[in-house]
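can u pls check wat happens w/ guanosine-5'-diphosphate
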Amino acid sequence: DSLFSGFSKTRENLAVIDELLLYWNLSDTDRVLDELEEALLVSDFGPKISIKIVESLRSDILAGKLKTGSEIKDALKKSVLQLLTSKGSKTDLQLGYRKPAVIMVVGVNGGGKTTSLGKLAYRLKNEGVKVLMAAGDTFRAAASDQLEVWAERTGSEIVIAEGEKAKAPSVLSQAVKRGKEQGYDIVLCDTSGRLHTNYGLMEELIACKKAIARAMPGAPNEILLVLDGTTGLNMLPQAREFNEIVGVTGFILTKLDGSARGGCVVSVVDELGIPVKFVGVGEGLDDLQPFDPEAFVNAILS
Ligand code: GDP
């Protein structure tokens, strides 16, 4: 399925582990673990996690708890799964019980924000959810047009800025109010993503968040940060900055189909303690998948 094919490049990187473990024997442990660590590093698990995993395997091997290559492989899968789930945070959307729920989508331009928002609308519509989109990227002229195309494609209603001077917080606040009045289930808010020294993106995002909360106490229910999966570990500083400033509740990792650096999924969850909620594994409407840690581990280390 698309989760498996979406991670095929990362899986190719990690396939060497199977060969290593097939011929593993006790006297060969150091060399095999060195190469296993290298395979994890190449797939962007990051040094901290790669060392942690390998050292835990080493101590279990030396203690006689792991006796065959396939036991080592299972232990490896288990420890990756544990890293993804130990923080206990929910990978599904937490939308509360009051309607509309508000999802704010943030992230820098080019990461796949608009595409993800469109795919998310499509997914929600298919679940029978009444979705209202809000074009909160008022900075980039083409952004509203692009989102309108997605609204049409998914049969969603959309609120766009009226007049050139309309500001993002007011567009989002209008959308949330309309969502409330007209009985929408979810308002999906796009935001600006322009990183530029003279432009206060973070200030604008804070203002957007406040405007949403004024229109609907308790909202936004989710603030999803879209991260470009092809950037691997380089996404970490960006994730930290967004989180410190707006408080991220979940990640959407895009373009993982084009990336052999899928291990970054594990490092971003471990470093920030925030769950990945969706992964983008292609350009089609269906290629935004809810993140399932177990399916992910099976896809990269089958
Ligand atoms: P934005 O500037 O953050 O809104 O980025 P866009 O949504 O316009 O996406 C930038 C490019 O990345 C587009 O060409 C998308 O089709 C592409 N893209 C987005 N998500 C994915 C994905 O999961 N896989 C692949 N292969 N391409 C993607």
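The mean pLDDT is 94.
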